[in-house]
Give the backbone structure.
Amino acid sequence: MTPIVSIIMGSTSDLPVMEKAAQLLNDMHVPFEINALSAHRTPEAVESFARGAAARGIRVIIAGAGMAAALPGVIAASTTLPVIGVPIKGSTLDGVDALYSILQMPPGIPVATVAINGALNAAILAVQMLALSDERLAADLAAYKEGLKKKITKANEDLKEVKYEYKTN
């Protein structure tokens, strides 16, 4: 099975965040790979990865990084594939530094950016991109979204059972 999504993180310490993307892709039966590459510690490997990703069959890249968060932008500079950046919350600036680093790309080098620690949304966005040309995946995505709707409907029904003296509904 050849991966079509690549999940890249700056360090394996980012795995607790990025595994949410991996789990959704796994649940949707989307072949993926996971690697740790650092824009600052292994720049040659990052460039080589990005330049060769499309030829290997990768169609979307999800790149998570904290602190200076150069990884998604460096990857985007070396490929024409869509790159989705996941800012990872760090220990000093709560991920805002990573968010700004990923968001503020120069013209011509876009990186789609999700919320801080938003790896799940990154995977959903990747699936939405892939579903444009995959009917099975489009149906699975529609079922996933319907499941989200049903969860909220059920939660609202459950709230009707919560009693307070002045609650009117």
Observations:
- The chain has one domain: 5-134.
- The mean pLDDT is 96.
- Strands lie at 5-9, 32-36, 60-66, 83-88, 112-113.
